[in-house]
Amino acid sequence: MKFLNKLIPSSRCLVLVTLLATVACNEILEENPYTTFTTDYFKTSGGFRSAVVTGYAGMRFNYGPIGALDINVFGTDEWTNGDQAISSPLNVYNVSTSEGDLLTPWNNNFWHINTLNLIINLKPEELIEVREADRVTWVAEARYLRAHYYYLMVTQFGAVPLDLGSGELQFNDVPTSAFNRLPVDDLLVKNYQAMIDDLTFAVENLPAKRPERAFNLSKAAALHLLAKVYLYRGYSAVKQPSDFQNAYTTAMQLIDGKDTYGVALLEDFADVFREGNDYNAEIIYAIERLPKNNTANEMIDPSTDFANKANMTNNMFNSNYQGPIFVFDPSTTPPSTQAYIDGRPLEYGRPLRRFAPTKWLFETAFADKKNDSRFDNSFRMVWYARSVSATPPATYVNRLNAIGLAIGDTAFYLTKRDREADSLKALAGAQKKNYRVFGPSEFYTNTNRTNLIYPSLKKFQSVQRANFQDASGRPLPVSRFAETYLLAAEAAMLLGQPGEAADLINVLKRRAAYRPELTPGEVDSRYAAIEVTAADINIDFILDERTRELAGEHSRWPDLAARGKLLDRVPTRNVDAANIQPHHVLRPIPQSQLDRMSDPDKAKYQNPAY
C-alpha cells in the first residue's frame, strides 16, 4: 500500500509540512517548517501531541469536501442530484473502480491511521518528558480517532487492512506493494473488534466532558461512536449475539449520564444549527473549523478548493435562486441579467446545486410540516430581496420598487402544497403578491428542469465568510446527542422492546413539536399529533425518523447500507437511482490501489461484481 507513506516516507525520516498546534477553537494552524527528523520526534511531548492533532485535522477530509459529501449523500432515499451534478455516478449507480470521490477517504485515511499507530504503540519508557497523565489522554484520543477512521472505511468498503505493512495496527515506515485484505471475512471480524477495543479504551480514559469552546474528544464522543459500532456490527455478517444489547447499554449510559458527560438536547431544534451557537451542548463532536481563518482551516483558496479539507456544506445543497426565472425583465435587448436577489448574499450561500431533496423526503418523510418543526428548521422555503453589497446598487433598488418590492421583502416563496401556490397566484388587485410563488409540482427534478429551485438545506448556512464564493468556516457536527436517542431506540426495538423505543423517540418528537412562538398548550397539542406508540416502531420507521432528525448530516448512505435497506428503499424513493444493483451495497476498492499491488491476481482483492 504505497500511498500509506504520504506522511511517513522511506527509512525512518519524516517530513511534516504543517501541524496544528492545538484543536482548541481559538487557536490557528501553525506552519512548522521541519525538514527531516526521525521518529524520535514523536517521543517528545510536542511531537506526540502534534501527531494526535494531525489525526484530528485529517478528519476534515471526511467531513465537508465534495468527495466526502458525495459518498454519503448521493444515491440515497433523501437526496438526488441537482442540475449541476446531473447523472452523478454515485447517484445513478454507474460506479466504477476509478470513481474519484472514493479516493477522498482512501488516499487520506490510511496514512493518518499509520501515524496514530506509531504513537499508540510507543511505550511509556520510550517517551521524553511526557507526563503519564498526558500520555494516557493522548493515547485515548488517538485510539478514538483510529477507530473513527476505520469506521469510515469499513462502512463504505467493507473489510480494510489492519496490517499496513509491519503487522496489524503497527506503524509502517517501509513502502510495500502488499494489500493485506484477505481473507475478507476474517478481516472484517478484526476490523470491528479493533474499533470496539479502541473505543472502549477511549471511554475509560478520555475526559468526561469536552471543553465548552472546543471539540476535543470526550467520553461522550467515544460512547456515542461505540454504540453505533456495536449496532452496525449487529447488522453485519460478523454479528455477535450481544451486539444489540451492548449498543443499547452504551447509548443509555450516555443518555442516563448526560449531566456527567456535559451533553443535553436543546429545547428548540432551530438552535442546534444556529450559526454562532456551534458549541452547544447537543453537539458531542464536530470537525473544528474557524470562521474566516483560511490558515487554521487548511484552505489555500476557499472559493475554488472544493476538495481537500474544505467544508462545502454551506454551498452544495442550495438551489438556483439566481436562475433565469428570477430575472426582472428577460425580454430586454440585451436580456436583463439582474435578478430578484442581487448577487450571492452570504446568508444564501453559493448556489452550486449539487444535492436536491427527493420527492419522498419532501412529501413523505416530512409529511407533517406543521406539527413537526424540523422541516421548517432544516430547509429554506423563502428567499428575501437581498444584495451581496452592503449598499445595494440603485438600479437594483429601483427595479425592486418598480414591481412593488423593497430590500427585505419576500422575493420568492416555495409553498408546501400546490393548492396554496394556486391560491396565492390567483390573487388579484390589491391582494396580488409581488413575489414569485412556486408549488411542489414546480420544484426542480431531473425530469422537470424548468425551475431550478427546490427546498434548500439551511443547517450549514455560513454568513461569517470573507467572500460570497467561499466555503464555510463553521465547525461541522459529526455526533449529536439526538442521534444517541435514535441509536438507543433502534437497539431497544431490535431487543424486542418497541415500547422503550417509542419512549426514546418521543423525547425527540416532543422537542420537534416546540416552536418558541407557541404556548405550552399548543406545544402539547402538536406533540400529541406526532407522538408514537410501540405499534409504530419498525426499522423503516426508525430510518424515517433518522431522516426527520438528521437530514443532510452526511451519514445516510452508510446508514442504509449497514442496515441492509439500501436496495429496498433507494429505488422506490429516488427515481434517479433505479440502476442500483446488489453489489452496490459496498464501494469498489479503487483501481489505483489494485494497480500498485505486486500480486497479479488482483481480482480476489476487489469487492464482488466490480
UniProtKB/TrEMBL annotation:
Limits of the RagB/SusD domain: 363-561
Keywords assigned by UniProt, alphabetized: Cell outer membrane, Membrane, Signal
InterPro entries, A to Z: SusD-like_N, SusD_RagB_dom, TPR-like_helical_dom_sf
Principal subcellular localization: membrane
PROSITE patterns: PROKAR_LIPOPROTEIN
Signal peptide: 1-26
Record family assignment: Belongs to the SusD family.
Protein name: RagB/SusD family nutrient uptake outer membrane protein
Biological source species: Dawidia cretensis
Record lineage: Bacteria, Pseudomonadati, Bacteroidota, Cytophagia, Cytophagales
